[in-house]
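Exercise 7.
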Amino acid sequence: MANFSGLSFDSGLSDVLKLFPRNSEMLLRLLNDIMCADGVLSRGEREAIAAFISKQNTTLYCVFYHTVFSEVFSGPVEDTNKRIQPLLTYALGLHSKNSDKIKDAFDGALSAGWSEDAVYEVVEVCGIFDFINNIVLASGINTPEEPLNPMPTVDGLKDSYAAMADAICN
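Solution. The predicted structure, written as tokens, is:
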């Protein structure tokens, strides 16, 4: 059930950001840079991390969408999660806000062969999704009950957060 007036049962994140546009464009452009720009991690891996940290934050709306997005780019999210497990452990350490767990998970990711650049990309994904998850939770928007139809495509998701910014702010 949506919490803010102006939202309905089928409202999504873009509807929330349209209601409160003051920082929406900057947020979405930063999100696009973090999730879509070239980096050590693939787009699918970053989306899997977004889904994982959203699950830790009990934000099922974001788990739903970012799992789908990860699968569009990288195949089954379970396979991606196995491949990036040390990075998910690091994300969990960040989520714990416990410096000892963060340090142990950081060392574990490096020992598993991940670079500091990859680990920092996890920091960026977790940081922005803590913010976005709070927006989603505060708004009370509903998680879709049915699979997406049609499914998004790689081309359709290219720079999709910047496209959302353009749609909301123009």
